[in-house]
Amino acid sequence: MSYSNTTTVQIPVVVSGATGKMGREIIKAIAKAPDMNLVGAIGRQHLGEDIGEVVGIGELEIPVTNNLEVVLAQAAQESQLPVMIDVTHPSIIYDNIRSAIAYGVRPVVGTTGLTEKQIADLALFADKASTGCIIAPNFSVGVILMQQAAIAAARYYQHVEIIELHHNQKADAPSGTAIKTAQMLSELGQAFNPASVQEQEHLAGARGAVCGENIRIHSLRLPGLVARQEIIFGSMGETLKIEHNASDRTCYMAGVLLCVRKVLALKSLVYGLEKVLA
User: Fold this and answer.
1) Annotation-wise, does 218 bind a ligand?
2) How far apart (Å, rounded) are the C-alpha atoms in residues 51 and 10?
3) Catalytically annotated residue among 128, 166, 202, 244
């Protein structure tokens, strides 16, 4: 069975990382969205094969290719409002985003692992090009609600740590979501985790990585997981745990499609799904 779009006005979309687990779900979501039209599929596997056949939804007449720049150039030539969704790898994401912006293609990025300097450089590049770009450490609305709940709880607790658990093929650690959560808590202007004793690690890294206002993040990587994050607050006599668990990648698709629609109206880089939810 093939999915097809039927509306006259459609957003041309290129998916970079199309043959990965997240990319395959995105292909299915784009193919079913009535206001979007898949125009390119970039991947490292199944080169030359129809991406619809690869992901199991029938022929889409879009072959898998590994030449991103050619696809971006073609998309920009055929439309004024093309979008690139990128879910590839931290080692290539910076160059992918710059290439997309250079061709006038609006990036929607789910790949994490960019440094603060890289994000700042990309923001400046997008500003100069007046091209919208959304970098979302997480596409789940549930994650945004979790972070907002944590901000509310942080007003009443001085002690907090974050545990993030992902599948063992995730390349970066800590996750972008965990870093973003720690940054959001740090922006509240309060100090966290005042020392009670002089700690000593007998194994380096046993207490996790420190982010923002002394907030520790612990990363687990195991097969059988998709993505889970726990934010644990503590005070005398009690703990409060706020948890989000993604059991299937389909939970991210509503956020992906929202970002594709929202990025068209932007003229600069936006970091975080919460910035475009309103």
Assistant:
1) no
2) 19
3) 166
Low-confidence ranges of the chain (pLDDT < 50): 1-7
- Asked whether the whole model's pTM tops 0.85, one would answer no
| Alpha-helical runs (H) found in the chain | 21-32, 51-55, 68-78, 90-102, 116-129, 141-154, 176-186, 253-263
- 142: burial class by Cβ within 10 Å (0-12, 13-18, 19+)? middle
130 and 264 inside one domain: yes
Q: What is the pLDDT of residue 57?
A: 97
End-to-end CA distance of the chain: 36
Q: Tell whether 65 is in a known binding site.
A: no
**How many separate domains does the chain show?**
2
* 267 has catalytic annotation: no
Residue 17 assigned to a binding site? yes
Q: Let me know if 117 is a catalytic residue.
A: no
Domain for residue 3, yes or no?
no
Domain that holds residue 26: 11-135+250-276
The answer on 105 and 151 residing in a single domain is no
Q: Residue 132 corresponds to which tokens in the numbers above?
A: 């919208």
Give the pLDDT confidence score for residue 8 in this predicted structure: 56
Please give the single-letter amino acid code of residue 222.
L
Query: Does 138 show up as a binding residue in the annotation?
Result: yes
Q: Residue 7's pLDDT is what?
A: 43
Indicate whether 5 belongs to any domain: no
